Amino acid sequence: MTAHRIDGKAFAAKLRSTLTTQVADFKSAHDCVPGLAVVLVGEDPASQVYVGSKIKQTQEVGMRSIEHRLADDTDQATLETLIDALNADDSIDGILVQLPLPAGLDSSAILDRIDPAKDVDGFHPVNVGALWTGADALVPCTPLGCSLMVADTLGDDLSGLHAVVVGRSNIVGKPISALLQKMNATVTMAHSRTADIAALCRDADIVVAAVGRPGFVKADWIKPGATVIDVGINRLDTGKLVGDVDAGAFEVAGAMTPVPGGVGPMTIACLLTNTLRAAVLRRA
Ligand code: GUN
């Protein structure tokens, strides 16, 4: 059996198309458009590419993109002053500080300074806490995209299903675990210190891999018919992009996201979704 390929590119395009209509409706109702401020510090090449795509897609759905590119040697006080100004600016609905920040800057202090109502990354402790207590929250974009793809594949009630999340990062592993649990899955969080990850995965109806190691999850760890969400984007020395799951898993799984073209495109679509949501909630 070959797994159904979960097409993140097509799914994201559909989300952006819906958003374009919703942004137009928002504009009619409020006589303004949602604004997303993107802050990039330094010259990290991957971050430059991501930020470029975020800005382009924000504009494509009809929202306003406000760009702040700061030098590599920007100090903490300057960055905090910028965050304070964006928090105070009523025309800004979302604030995104691209990570990683250059060494020497305190990322946690910066993320904690963002107004939780404008925290479209969902990284502020208020939003993290709200997610875990089941309250309405701005949810981190990559996990939100993963949960939408799981819901599209299996429905939004995962009662009786076992999900194994491999990786425990704040950006992906922890929040996707909370989201899957909210959807009634029984969730196991596995990580580098877990004994026999292979056996855990073999019991999983859903595997989410977010470890940043090419091919870490092997094809023979996958239960036949399982749903596999591969969050990894790893560039090999050959230049090829591969995920955290061995591509052989496509022969075993029931449905699986490809890399590239799976989770990646959903992340920015969910950032735009969060920005509109923040704009609506701020005016409610
Ligand atoms: N760098 C890599 N992924 C992300 C993300 O989701 N948000 C931000 N702000 N930076 C990132």
- The CATH class of the largest domain, by name, is Alpha Beta
Provide the CATH topology of the largest domain: Rossmann fold
Give the N-terminus to C-terminus distance in angstroms. Answer: 49 Å
Q: Radius of gyration in whole Å, from Cα?
A: 19 Å
Which descriptors apply to this entry?
284 residues, alpha/beta, Rossmann fold, 2 domains
Describe this structure as you would to a colleague:
This protein is α/β, with parallel strands linked by helices. It folds into two domains: about 30-115, Rossmann fold, CATH 3.40.50; about 140-265, NAD(P)-binding Rossmann-like Domain (Rossmann fold), CATH 3.40.50. The chain has helices at about 10-30, 45-60, 75-90, 105-115, 125-135, 140-155, 175-180, 195-200, 265-280, and strands at about 5, 35-40, 65-70, 95, 160-165, 185-190, 205-210, 225-230, 235, 240, 255. A six-stranded parallel sheet has the order 1-11-8-7-5-6. α1 (about 10-30) runs parallel beside α9 (about 265-280). It is globular. Guanine binds near residues 96 and 141.
